[in-house]
Amino acid sequence: MTAITDADQANEHQRPPWGYLATFGWVVLALTLSVLGWLPVRVAIRPEILVDRTGARGDGVLLAVSVIVSAAIHIGVLALAARLARWPVAAYLGLVRPSNRHVAIGIAALAVLLLALDAASRLVGWHGGKFTVDSYRSARDTGALPLFLFSVIFVGPLYEEIVFRGFLFRGWIRSARSAVPGILIITALFTILHMPQYDWFGIVQLSLIGLLLCWARWLSGSTILTILLHALMNLWAIATVGLALS
Known about the structure:
By secondary structure, the protein is mostly helical. 78% of the residues lie in helices and 0% in strands.
């Protein structure tokens, strides 16, 4: 199987993507602006978190709002960065249609990984991350489950894949030589971002899924494929939690 490299796509557009440090700088800027964006919204919804953060971490409504606001800001900032690099936004972020063959391969690989992780979870007696369970229960009990599901299954995968397998991938993986270190670094950052939400076993699972998503991006040249796989992964996780709580 021949990977569709970002170097080939860069040659097509005649302009190089942002450099390594500039790529990271744009992501840090987007992250900073997103925090400044969702923090006042969270306070407006739950003013009590200014004096008591108990329960805020597992609040499904706050999570949903934070994800949606963060997505809008991240995507806006990184789309601007792509335009300033004089690339079409969709091409820069890898938002191109994957082939049916790559979709089939990606879904099959994800299914195998999820089944293996499920078996490992049963073996070690792991019953889902507390953060996911608490957030789901909180959203359900306050009548905000549709908003929670929309943010976790659609919005979250959309913006996280645009950040990690879209923008960072474009800037850091420029050839076959840079693929392995670039994928490892991107996966490490993806895992670190989620560390406050999961225990050790959840982090191991997330790392393996991050590697799979990077591999799918490298194989297909499409962030649309990784968005689909990420959404399916989150759907699986939420469905598992929902069934357990029911």
